[in-house]
Amino acid sequence: MKNSELASSLRDTASRMHKRLKREIKSADNLSLTEITTLSYLYQNGELFPSEMAEIAMVKAQSMSQVITHLDELKLITKTPSETDKRKVAISLSTYGRQMVEQTRYERDKWLDGAIEQNLSAAEKKTLQEAVALMNRLVESK
């Protein structure tokens, strides 16, 4: 298989997996995939400024502003003015937001754990583990 064919196949599969994992989230039906991902970034990183969130999510600052507004309306995040620059506001998860992230992670992990257990042999699980490491390298490459 050529690199271009492998790239296309990997992209298609990653996209389908992403959509499937989104379908498994029952507790966040009113959130977009970008909003769910943004909450996950906050869960992993703690407090972030909107510009940092936009960079991590690979979206424009204006788009992130809309995401932040919606998450704030739903009481999923907390805004804290910067002590050094009052024009800046740091964003973090509210208690409710943290609970939401933990629930959505549980729902996705539960489905994926079951799918792996029911569909893959021990050798295939090892191959999948190796593939995850390779995919992480690709994601982190420039």
Question: What is the number of domains?
Answer: 1
Task: Provide the CATH top-level class.
Answer: Mainly Alpha
CATH superfamily: Winged helix-like DNA-binding domain superfamily/Winged helix DNA-binding domain
**DSSP summary, beta strand count:** 2
Strand content: 5-15%
Which percent bin holds the helix content? 55-70%
Inertia-based shape? globular
Cα-to-Cα separation, first versus last residue: 23 Å
Structural class: mainly alpha
Q: Supply the number of helical segments.
A: 6
Q: H/E series, N to C?
A: HHHHEEHH
**Average pLDDT level:** 92
Q: Characterize the main sheet.
A: 2 strands, antiparallel
Radius of gyration: 18 Å
Protein name: HTH marR-type domain-containing protein
Pfam family, one: Staph_reg_Sar_Rot
GO molecular function: DNA binding; DNA-binding transcription factor activity
Keywords: DNA-binding, Transcription, Transcription regulation
Which features does this protein show?
DNA-binding, about 140 residues, HTH_MarR-typ, mainly alpha, two-stranded antiparallel sheet, Arc Repressor Mutant, subunit A, transcription
List the helices and strands and how they pair.
Blueprint: H1 3-23, H2 33-45, H3 50-57, H4 61-73, E1 77-81, E2 89-93, H5 95-119, H6 122-140
Antiparallel strand pairs: 1-2
Helix pairs in contact: 3-4
